[in-house]
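EI: anyone free to look at a 88-residue chain?
SC: sure, send it
EI:
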Amino acid sequence: MRILYCIYQVFIAIPVTIVMTIWTAFLVGVGCTLGDGHYWGYYPGRWWARTITRVFLLPVKVEGREQLEPNQSYVFVSNASWVVTSSG
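SC: here you go
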């Protein structure tokens, strides 16, 4: 199954990622030049991120969303347990 996923990544996911990245960069550049920079600086990147996570078949699990206040700004940091820090 791992070999099949590697073949999928090389022939489908990576080319789609390259095309989506170029398209998103072009869309954001043109959109920010001609229109509302707040919209074009946010939504195309969001669409890109969702598309990439789906293309690479990555599971995304969101917990605690109901505890967020609608008019409040937040900074989210993932729980990356693979990060190793050294105290040297």
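EI: The mean pLDDT is 88.
SC: 👍
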